[in-house]
């Protein structure tokens, strides 16, 4: 089903003019220079295609012929483009014999494809290769910069590259088909007999995978094979279908794609069964722009502001459970969406989750997610909608640089981001590891902030059906919640009395939230001492008495879920005290 949906997506994009998806036998390649040829095969110009200047110049991505499978350490030439070792017989690796063989392989492949052709571009390329002598490379214009870079060809009279000429595309498609499959069989994707792909193309753009890509379907051990079939013939897919699904997946996962979410070890791509503006908006729903994001946009302030406003209206409607058509009539809630989560596994890709649902159902789940996270903020500058990246970063180790707090995405527990994304997209319970990771970080660094409180509330609401208020609930009777409030009041009494650099939170928060009976007697005695010295001791004492009045007995232990409630009680009470102080 995954490969069929990707195959259909490729066909849809290929039929759209200007979609940018590579044609059959082609893929995106990093190209640095273009060699311009005369019709007689003379080199007339070298054009620098790189972006940037000097040492910061980087290759640019162009669609060019690709090989059916990844090139390894052996010699295998690309057609009509490659590095200078293959194309011109000159490289900086100091292996003259291998370079000679590589250049010979390039010439043979060009001759094999072009031998029956009368195309002016291919004839010029053949003439150039026939007359080219690798020793001339050193006198080539800009040879130092060109060395080892990927180069393509263009005919002087053309505006397109040589490999983009219609006849060249046709000839390469035939050769690609011959290289990709040698055995006939029934394709499991299309259901028709065709040449079967022996090796499937690699997928790039997946977080954590090899930079050159990794296959989604592969068999590299005899133990995985059966019925005498080798490699990918065990999962018979036609070479055209293999190219289409791989190209579609590469297109979705490419850099800058608006249909990709990369988070931690997981890469999630999504697409619709038919063209819809929702495809460009769905990723933004998981990483909502701030209210003033439009002012600093790069695609035009007015366009940015309009998009930002639309996304926020959609989120607001989803959170309130209102139909999306009320705010965005152009978005069809019935269009079917495919969501695929993948991550690297050794040298291959593993499917982490696969989901099919309508856009309307997805919005409902996104609305449930943000409704669960809804909790009072500590300041108006904090985002109303918490992005996925911000949520998972709270599980990472905290590095303090002065008053500044930094977190690194590499410290996020593996597998967590993928599991969390799947929960949001499918409406499944949040991963317990997410909840325990947040509690673990709070015990370690004693930071109880808006994001962490929102996560605890969302987890307890979805996974345990607990009703958790957005702000302080003075009537709530849960011992864990009341003890959290009590801890915040005792900390306030300490601050009023001594204003220490480290409070009881730094020493006792972890033990108070896990084993209250062993810690709170001591904290209450210490609190009475602080109350007697504090400027607002009488008022704090009354608040403490009100909270303690609702606690019948100090529990010896609190479960993990109750520790979450304890933390929320602490967060709510501290916010209430902060607001009271502001009013005073």
Commentary on this structure:
The chain is an alpha+beta fold and 584 residues long. Helix content is 44%, strand content 15%. It is built from 19 helices and 16 strands. It has helices at residues 2-15, 84-87, 96-114, 120-131, 143-146, 166-180, 239-253, 278-286, 301-320, 359-373, 388-393, 416-426, 432-445, 450-464, 479-498, 504-514, 516-533, 537-548, 560-583, and strands spanning 26-31, 33-37, 43-48, 60-65, 82-83, 150-155, 181-186, 193-197, 202-203, 214-215, 260-263, 266-272, 336-345, 348-358, 398-401, 404-407. Strands 3-2-6-5 form a four-stranded mixed sheet. Strand 15 and strand 16 form a beta hairpin. Helix 15 runs parallel beside helix 17 (516-533) and helix 16 packs antiparallel against helix 17. It is elongated and about 100 Å long. It starts with a helix and ends with a helix. 39% of the residues are buried.
């Amino acid at each position: 089903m995954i490969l069929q949906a990707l195959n259909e997506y490729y066909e849809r994009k290929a039929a759209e003019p200007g979609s940018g998806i590579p044609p059959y036998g082609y893929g995106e390649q990093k190209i640095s220079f273009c060699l311009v040829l005369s019709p007689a095969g003379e080199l007339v110009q070298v054009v620098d295609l790189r972006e940037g200047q000097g040492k910061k110049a980087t290759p640019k991505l162009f669609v060019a012929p690709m090989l059916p499978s990844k090139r390894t350490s052996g010699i295998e030439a690309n057609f009509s483009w490659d590095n200078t070792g293959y194309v011109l017989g000159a490289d900086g690796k100091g292996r003259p014999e291998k370079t000679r063989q590589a250049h010979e392989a390039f010439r043979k492949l060009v001759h094999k494809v072009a031998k029956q052709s009368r195309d002016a571009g291919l004839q010029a390329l053949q003439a150039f290769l026939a007359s080219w002598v690798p020793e001339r490379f050193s006198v080539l214009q800009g040879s130092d910069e060109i060395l080892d870079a990927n180069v393509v060809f263009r005919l002087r009279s053309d505006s397109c590259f040589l490999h983009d000429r219609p006849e060249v595309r046709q000839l390469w498609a035939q050769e690609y088909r011959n290289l990709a499959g040698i055995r006939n069989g029934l394709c499991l994707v299309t259901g028709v007999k065709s040449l079967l792909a022996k090796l499937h193309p690699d997928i790039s753009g997946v977080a954590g995978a090899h930079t050159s890509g990794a296959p989604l379907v592969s068999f590299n051990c005899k133990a995985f094979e059966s019925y005498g079939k080798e490699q990918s013939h065990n999962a018979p897919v036609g070479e055209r279908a293999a190219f289409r699904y791989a190209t579609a997946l590469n297109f979705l996962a490419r850099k800058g794609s608006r249909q990709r979410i990369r988070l931690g070890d997981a890469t999630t791509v999504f697409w619709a069964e038919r063209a819809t503006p929702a495809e460009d908006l769905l990723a933004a729903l998981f990483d909502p722009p701030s209210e003033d994001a439009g002012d600093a946009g790069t695609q035009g302030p007015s366009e940015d502001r309009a998009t930002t406003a639309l996304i926020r209206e959609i989120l607001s409607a989803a959170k309130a459970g209102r139909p999306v058509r009320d705010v965005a009539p152009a978005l069809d809630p019935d269009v079917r969406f495919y969501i695929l989560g993948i991550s690297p596994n050794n040298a291959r890709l593993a499917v982490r989750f696969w989901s099919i649902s309508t856009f309307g159902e997805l919005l409902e789940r996104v609305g449930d997610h943000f409704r669960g996270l809804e909790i009072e903020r500590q300041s108006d500058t904090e985002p109303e909608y918490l992005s996925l990246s911000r949520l998972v970063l709270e599980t990472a180790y905290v590095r303090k640089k002065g008053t500044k707090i930094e977190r690194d995405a590499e410290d996020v527990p593996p597998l967590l981001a993928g599991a969390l994304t799947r929960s949001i997209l499918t409406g499944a319970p949040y991963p317990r590891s997410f909840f325990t990771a947040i509690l673990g970080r709070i015990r370690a660094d004693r930071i109880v902030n808006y994001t962490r409180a929102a996560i605890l509330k969302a987890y307890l609401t979805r996974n345990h059906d607990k009703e958790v208020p957005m702000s302080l609930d003075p009537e709530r009777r849960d011992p864990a919640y009341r003890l959290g409030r009590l801890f915040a009041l005792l900390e306030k009494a300490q601050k009023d009395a001594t204003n220490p650099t480290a409070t009881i939170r730094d020493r006792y928060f972890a033990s108070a939230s896990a084993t209250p009976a062993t810690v709170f007697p001591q904290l209450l005695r210490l609190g009475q001492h602080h109350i007697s010295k504090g400027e607002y001791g009488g008022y704090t004492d009354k608040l403490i008495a009100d909270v303690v009045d609702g606690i019948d007995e100090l529990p010896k232990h609190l479960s993990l879920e109750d520790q979450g409630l304890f933390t929320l009680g602490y967060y709510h009470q501290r916010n209430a005290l902060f607001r009271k102080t502001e009013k005073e």
